[in-house]
Amino acid sequence: MARVIRKRTKKYSHNGCKECKRRKIKCDEEQPVCWQCDRLNKRCQYNTKTNNRHSMGNEVFKDLERHQDDMANARSNLLSPLLYFSENNSVLNQSLDEEVQDSLPVPGSSILANDLSDLISLNLDELATVAESTTPHYSTPDGIMLSSPPFDSERIFQTNVPMSYISLSGLNHFYMKEFYNDFSKIILPLQAKENGVTCNPVRDILMIHARDSYYLLYALLACGARTSHRKTSLPEDLSSYKAYLRHCLTSLTTAMDQQFNSKLDSILLTILVLTCDNASNKSQAWRAHLHGAKDLLFKKSYTNQKPQSMTFLLCRAWYSSIEILAGLVSANGGTLQSNEELDLLTLPNDQKEAATLRELKIVSPEGVSLFHGYSMELVVALKDLIKLLRNENKSRVHYSKIIDLLARLNKQLSFQVISGAGIIPETHQYHPKNVRQDNLNHANIEIISIDGNKIAVSWLDIVHRSYTLASLITISTKLLNMKKECEMVQGMVRDLLDTAFFLDATNDSSKSYCSFLLQWPILVAGLNSIEEPDKIKVETFFRLLAELGSGSAGFVLVRMRKVWLKGLKFEQETPDQVDIVPY
């Protein structure tokens, strides 16, 4: 019998470019541009060899050498605006010497830019079959100079920044209006109030930065185009979305070749906006592109060399809301994998930072985080719940930790902003018909109509109570191993669904963007529902979210129907094929 000689296979090479690795295709490792990237007209980048994947020492050293000559001109070349509240604010008023320090390269900054570039490229790949328009309105928007204005140390933070703050025309103006009026409410459904006027502090900061940062401006316009497409299904809206993303990528590439570190706040804002865009649509491809943001936020928070900028603190609060939601919903969690990271990035580091968030109106006077939708005390409790859920399959959770957490959550059930039940009595001073000039600063109150009766609802109370009950259900079923048929569990499910009484509204008053904040609590209620009326209410809720523009609502509904049909055993045996984070 003839001897079979096996051909020796070559050792697998890990030195291919990032784009080929992402596409899972063979790279010929030709530098500076490989054959595949040249053929596909993609940006070709190679990893720098280091002992540690996240070690940035060599990169920092090279960047320091490259930027030594720039330091002499740093005072006159700062491009990114620092925003201020007043001259007396010690957190926000930074000296010009500190801004010169900011022009030094920041470890992890190039990873952040690469993550943003990959996120945009991924979206463009999904739109490969969509025709891209070449009409003139995709050129540079009217009224904006290509170069950013010089650093202005007297710039004042504004509330209720109007659309006219950025001069646009034609379809640019139309898509900005879609972002301004609709998508910004998906990012921050709960609103703030100042002097009786409703405002969206996140939208304000995005508008201020977008006027000086092309990549952020194009990202906002892209979100506006996608929002319009959800409403109309017109192919030109999808073409516009693709064109804006391409312009965003081009502008980002240009920014990376200039004084990059002065633009980190704008790049953080851009990647968070596009993360929300992806998390609210069907692709759900967001986690891999937040690692750079996490590394940068962690390192700047950990070193804590000086008070951080207002925008940085806002980005960290925004990022925290995404990560806590991911930790509660997905078995994989978010990008925060250690308890140290959770502790550092989910809460303000000190009282000054907390005061800044209040001045930004990201945290309400009652202590409710508008990004999260519930009190800061509940943010701490949910962070600790995520820690316990992570340990569920690794080691035995000590009963004292569960008892302590149950006690804290029980206390949160008594927390209220206006009315714990979410329904504002007509005799209450904050009922709209009783509002006087001296109590106009309560936002997030709406009137809905149920069976011809007009009811005033407090969204802050509804969302907070829903998260508290969902947390108690999660502890009962996942940590204490109670069956969902248990009367105690079903009692909490019914209480939770009772907070969603707005679903019984007889008109469009139930279609509030604040519903987006209830996705995780209603998901928990749905997975543990056994009664048909409860299941119908849950299905009605997610259908409503789909109408409002939630791309994840359809996935969640399919997942729940399978659980209802096959039981929670299906949930345990069949991991999600789609990494769903309801946003």
TrEMBL record:
This is Zn(2)-C6 fungal-type domain-containing protein. The keyword Nucleus applies. It comes from the Eukaryota. It is found in: Nucleus. Residues 16-46 form the Zn(2)-C6 fungal-type domain. GO terms for cellular component: nucleus. Keywords: Nucleus. Pfam families: Fungal_trans_2, Zn_clus. Its main location: nucleus. GO terms for biological process: positive regulation of transcription by RNA polymerase II. GO terms for molecular function: DNA-binding transcription factor activity, RNA polymerase II-specific; transcription cis-regulatory region binding; zinc ion binding.
